[in-house]
Amino acid sequence: MIISNRGKYTVVPLLVNGTSQDVMIRSADTLLCTLREQLGLTGAKQACGNGDCGACTVLVEGKPMHSCLLLTIETLSSGITTIEGLIHSPVRKAFVDNWAIQCGYCTPGFIVNGHALVTEHPDADNERIEEWLQSNLCRCTGYQEIKDAIKSVLAADKLIDPESADASIQ
Asked: Which residues neighbour 92 within 8 Å (Cβ) at sequence distance 6 or greater?
């Protein structure tokens, strides 16, 4: 639903983190730019600009998407969740507890993607975790801590100690 046109800009409502907010966009504006520049939500990062790295990952209707590849106009009737909207996600805490961060630039994208993974696949195995993590890149870590963080959330959901879960797999 378009609220008003102002020359080359259009004012439209955008549902972000459960709140509808009016934003002024051009038809070529990416969701990433709108989130960062219009709404001040800077957790999603501009890195590669072509969907390869995942630093800009947000949830659109619960699905992880690279916001650098989405036009804002494409998401008008969708619910968008950013890292700022996942303040109480157990994945955030698991990343801290498992030291799954280095410089932190890619961390919000990994957390958003990890949140979607544990929500959509609460029984994810190592193969599925590996598959999901392929959409995000980190230049600072070997990914093991990130995998451990995701596994700890999955194990906690099953009320199993992650260390004993790993021992039972071996």
From this structure: 86, 111
